[in-house]
Amino acid sequence: MLWIALVDRTGSGLWAAVSVLYFTYVTGLSVTQVGTLAAVSGAIGIAGAPLGGRIADRLPLTRVLISLQILRALASLALLTTDNYALLLAFSAAGSFGDRAANVLTKLYATRVSGPDRVRYQAVTRTVANAGWALGGLTAAAALTIGTTTAYQWLLTGDALSFVAAALLTVRCAEPPSPARTIATSEDPAPTTRPASPWRDRGYLAYVATETVLFLDDAVFKVGLPLWIAHSDQAPHGLAPLLMVVNNLMVVALQVPLARFGATTAAARSLLLPLSAAFALGGVAMALSATGEAFTSTLFLTTSAVAFTVAEMLHATVSWELSVALAPGTAQGAYLGVHGLAQSAQRSIGPLAVTAAIATGPLGWTAFGATIAVTCVFQHRLVRDQLSRTALSVPPVTVSEH
């Protein structure tokens, strides 16, 4: 599965770096059309997380993952066959759906096979995935120096082939034990209760709502920092890609060491308090970057990037552990699928939130960081109450399918 993460993210890095350029220069879409395509496909992709998780509670997980990888490969290859806007929209939406569903199912697989070591497994997976993103991005940057239609098409083909390779690697993975599926016979009594549903679990839904806010660090690096620097009179414009490199290197170097501080559910919950401080510091540093000359601005922007990167790593550990700990074992797929909605929704909400902070100025960035910090504190209290109820009401599950 770690090899799959590397191959998958390397291919995604190839396409993520050039998707806007491909739709602009190869298929001839306007800026409005490109934006609409990204928004609509992203909105449809949101459904992939809950549907994928629900299916995985009923069917063998590896088979569903293989099917999703094939769907992603076909969707990418289909983009090469047309410049019709409606078809491009449909193929992009199919790929987005497969991407969000595969992301949740990969997490579910890791949860089932890693057991009590799931936090460390997640940290290693994030490290490998970031290395893949970097490798794919560097390859795409080299190909862009050519700048021909053929170069763009080969990058998209490479993305599709990475999904084919991921599907072939998944074939070799054993099916993990699943408490959600058991073998029943005619002598077994019929179940008297409905399986747990995250849609009827108000506490879990409230937790997912707070997660949507905590995932906003993603929009800071993808939209906020580049735009803030581009419109700054003090900061050098070449600083934006350098801060992205800092972010990537920090995750690769520190994600695994930091994971040991959240190795248990209680420890993960405790990390929400330093996570709150990291978000607040990041917002304040962004605000202060507008108050000085070039050197001071660069210093504060670098401080902000480091703070938001620390927040990203801490939240990755906290989110992984708590999303699993709050989910009943017999419905992990459904619960993790609903949790996946938080990250999917952030992809739409995040750009709006950071552009609002930019439009408001330094005060906007201070409010941005403070809002997420307060949400961390609220989640700290919410999770405590939820874990207390879970411990009292959910019996241990010992039956699994091998």
Portion in strands: under 5%
Order of helices and strands: HHHHHHHHHHHHHHHH
Please state the average pLDDT score.
Answer: 84
Biggest sheet record: none
Helix-and-strand structural type: mainly alpha
**Uncertain runs:** 182-186, 391-402
Number of helices: 16
Helix content: over 70%
Termini separation comes to 19 Å
Q: Total strand count, please?
A: 0
The geometry reads as globular
- Gyration radius (Cα, Å) is 22 Å
Question: How would you summarize this macromolecular structure in one to three sentences?
Answer:
By secondary structure, this protein is mostly helical. The chain is built from 16 helices and no strands.
How would you describe this protein?
- This protein has helices spanning 2-16, 19-26, 31-45, 48-56, 61-79, 85-114, 118-144, 149-171, 202-214, 217-230, 239-259, 265-270, 272-288, 294-325, 332-360, 362-393.
- With 402 residues, it is an all-alpha fold.
- The chain is built from 16 helices and no strands.
List the helices and strands and how they pair.
Elements: H1 2-16, H2 19-26, H3 31-45, H4 48-56, H5 61-79, H6 85-114, H7 118-144, H8 149-171, H9 202-214, H10 217-230, H11 239-259, H12 265-270, H13 272-288, H14 294-325, H15 332-360, H16 362-393
